[in-house]
Amino acid sequence: MEEKQLYEGKAKKVFATANPDEYRVYFKDDATAFDGTKRGTIINKGIINNKVSAFFFNLLAEHGIPHHFVKLISDREMIVKTLKILQVEVVVRNVAAGSLAKRIGWEEGTKMPMPVLELYYKNDELHDPLINEYHIQAMGLATPEQLSEIKAYALKINDILSAYLKTKNVELIDFKLEFGVHKGQVILGDEISPDTCRLWDSETKQKLDKDRFRRDLGNVEDAYREVLKRLTGEVM
Ligand code: UDP
């Protein structure tokens, strides 16, 4: 029996399961950028993002980060814990790129002297605006305790992922995380993939992420496949 679809986003669909504590997530090949104004397909992206996310969630669990991932059930599907997603997106940056390079006028590729953490209001209609902790408190998007947990997890995740990726000759430039509440606990949700991270080859600085799609750089599929190969050894 096909379970009820609860949600369809730009890159994923979420379904109920027979277990009230779990959802099934299906990863699509659909790609969007610039607030959904640019649309396309990245062939096999859904498979790669499913596998790469599973890999990163397992890595983070080894370092004590609680997350929603339970298990892979097919090339494009994973089982996750049910979450009430907090309407805050957390971005951590090690190198200036994208919107930050523009906002502060630093050339893309400039190393920040320390990791920079940013908070965004997860709201499509408002185009996910940058907000600060006062906004979050005033809007009731998260409690002060939840916010301090989220920030500590995000910075720890940055340390874990940066160190690991370095061993694979990949530099973690920046990434976006989403957290949610499961049985009263704040845990990491969503995905961690070339859609949500900037990943550059450490030596050549070649982009191995969604910027290849956003900026029409070509070889988009190759870049996604390369990330999967460097992480898991799997050749697709
Ligand atoms: N990001 C994301 N979803 C968003 C916005 C950003 O996953 O809706 C990721 C993006 O891939 C990058 C980081 O967050 O790794 C910082 O993105 P930035 O603010 O530079 O915005 P962009 O240049 O992607 O518009």
Give structural attributes:
236 residues, alpha+beta, Phosphorylase Kinase, domain 1, D-amino Acid Aminotransferase, Chain A, domain 1, 2 domains, five-stranded antiparallel sheet, 6 helices, 13 strands, binds uridine-5'-diphosphate
* Poorly predicted segments: none
Q: Strand pairing plus helix content: what structural class? A: alpha+beta
The CATH class label of the largest domain is: Alpha Beta
Mean pLDDT: 98
**Count of DSSP E strands?**
13
The name CATH uses for the topology of the largest domain is D-amino Acid Aminotransferase, Chain A, domain 1
The appropriate CATH architecture of the largest domain is 2-Layer Sandwich
Bound molecules: uridine-5'-diphosphate
Order of helices and strands: EEEEEHEEEHEEHHEEEHH
CATH superfamily annotation of the largest domain? ATP-grasp fold, B domain
Terminal CA distance: 31 Å
User: Helical amount among residues, as a percent range?
Assistant: 25-40%
Work out the count of structural domains. Answer: 2
Q: Name the overall outline.
A: globular
Strand fraction equals: 25-35%
Structure overview:
Strands 8, 9, 10, 11, 12 and 13 form a 6-stranded antiparallel β-sheet that branches. Strands 1-2-3-7-6 form a 5-stranded antiparallel β-sheet. The protein is α+β, with helices and mostly antiparallel strands and 236 residues long. The mean pLDDT is 98. Helices cover 31% and strands 34% of the residues. The protein is built from 6 helices and 13 strands. It folds into 2 domains: 5-81, Phosphorylase Kinase, domain 1 (2-Layer Sandwich); 84-219, 2-Layer Sandwich (D-amino Acid Aminotransferase, Chain A, domain 1). Helix 1 runs parallel beside helix 6. Residues 91, 97-100, 128, 174-176, 196-198, 210 line the site of uridine-5'-diphosphate. The site of uridine-5'-diphosphate has 13 residues, from helix 2, strand 11 and strand 13.
